[in-house]
Every structure is written in structure tokens, then in C-alpha cells.
Design brief:
The protein is of the alpha/beta class and about 350 residues long. The protein is about 45% helix and about 15% strand. It has 13 helices and ten strands. Strand 2, helix 2 and strand 3 (about 65-70) form a beta-alpha-beta unit. The longest helix is centred in the C-terminal third of the chain and has 29 residues, at about 255-280. It is globular and about 60 Å long. The termini are far apart.
Length: about 350
Amino acid sequence: MNIDNRNTYPLISIIIPVYNSENYIMRALNSLIKQDISDIEVVIVDDGSTDSSYRIACDYQKKVNNIHVYHQNNSGVASARNLGIEKSRGRYIAFMDSDDDVSTEFCKILKSEVITNNDIDMFIFGLQEVFENGDIVNIRTSAKSKNILLRDGDDLFELFENNLLPVTWNKITSRDFIGDTRFRDLIIGEDYQFYLDLLLKQPTIRVLHDILYNYHVAIENSAMKHYDAMRFLTLKNQQSCVIRLMEKEKLDSDSQNRILEVFNSRSRNYMIMNFINSSNSNPNFNIRKEVMAMKETNKQFTLSLINILFSKYLKNNMKVKLLIAYYSNIVTMNILKLIYLYRDKN
């Protein structure tokens, strides 16, 4: 598509999958429509909500010409995003979750960036994790705005170190570059897989230091709180994608080791979280099977004790969890359960 053909296509499509978000969707939409959304369309896909989310979205559609609402039977967030891609018309595609909101400069900065840098396939911007009371928990962003090269080990490492890859809502990508790439039907990790698939197509990338997105942590229906029996296989497949990417870009061994250390640390942590979710919600929970799963995790996602103890990027609470699970047995896994029980009560 010709980026200068403004009369035919909107510049940006913002796709929002919705499922039972009646308590949050107005906050999300208001954060957009308070800005200049000319040349932007908002595509809402209701994924079979059983609350009033769909009605609320339709009310906004009646008031704002740039908002378009679609409905499907409950099929999951991957299916909803894929439908959004098909229904949208923007030359660039961004994603937003219905329980989050964006900064007041979100639309202005992104429109300016894609017009000024129209040779870039993917923009990755900063985000902040916030509690519902507005307190900022964490900020994830690059040190400065710049074009990066995947074949540069330091540039690629920065994406992994700052945890900028696993999510959809801190990126905007050219529709032409996305092509026929679509979200896979995974319980957890479909967003990470989507962007790993895109990275393997070797996009031109620009990272932005600007903090443009507010990710609200601890929302009740968060997928990260659900047990996923396929989590290990998903992470193993994503590890293979990361290795393929590094080999494709011909990264040196030091860069590969640094990136894998980050990826493996987070993968172990995801599996610890999956164990906790299983103990809380899986009717077939079996501590012995979970111990074996953790041992398999440690074998697949290799880390030394020195990697964990002297890591420059791991927070202390993650270091503690990884150290406890390092020698996985019934005692250590029950200690992890107790830590999470204490944290949840406080």
C-alpha cells in the first residue's frame, strides 16, 4: 500500500479483542477518543462476551465514526485478533487489550513516526505496568529511540533484556509486512509466537523510548493466571524460534548465550507460574508430575547457578524463585506454593 494514499485507507488500525470487559472497556476507548484519531480506525472484536461489553462497544460505534465493532462466538483471543486483522484497513496495525489504556500522546507520536519513517516495518515502544490505583509497578522501554538491526547482537539483546517482545500492545507493524502471518491458537503465548514469527521474516525495526501504553496488572481474567497444560511445549517451540533467529542473523556465540540466558530465565519463571496456577485451578493437579515437569523445564532451559546468582537483569524475587526451583523436588515446589500463598494474602 502507498503510505501517501490517505483518501483510501486509514493510516493506523488499532485492534481490540474484547471478552467480558464491561468494567474496563470504557477506560480503554476513552483513552483513545480523547485524542486526535483522524486517520485512525479502532476495530473492536467481541469474542462472545456474556456481559455488557458488546453493547458498550456498539454504543461507542454509534457515537464515533472511526470505531467499528464485530462479534464472533467465543473462539479465543488469537481468533479475535486474526478477525481484526482481516476486517481492518489500516496501513499499519497496532493491538490493544480492552482492560488497558494508552498515554495521551499515543496517537500523535505513532502517526508522526510511521509518516516520518515509512521504510520501517515494525515500531516497538515503551510501556508501563500499573496497578488499578495508578501506581507504576515497572517500566519497560529502550534506552533511546533508534533504528535497530537484528544482526547486531547488542540490539537484539536489548529487546530481550527489556522484555519488549512477548506482548502485542507495544508495537505497530506494517500490514504489508505482516502479510499472511497470523496468531496461533495457544492458551498462553500466542502474542510472543506471533512476533517471533514476524522477526524470522527479518523486519526493519525502530524502537521508541516513549512510554505510550499502560498495562494494568492483576486484572481478574488475565490469561497468565490460567493453567496451560501445553505451556512447556509452547516455550520449547519459542526457544527453537529464538535459536533459528539468532542463527539466521549469524550472531556470535557470546550474543547468543546472553540472549538465551534471558529467554531461559523467563521460561523457567513462566513454568513456575504455571505450576502455581495448576495447584490453584487444575482438578488433576499432581505434585509428583509437576516436579517432573519442572525438572524437564530445567533441563530444556539451561541455566547455571552462577547465571542466576550474578545476573544483571533478574530481580531479586525472580532469583529466589529460580534458585528454589533449581533442585526441583516435592519440598522445594511446596516452598514455592507457600511463597505465593503468603504473597496473595498480603
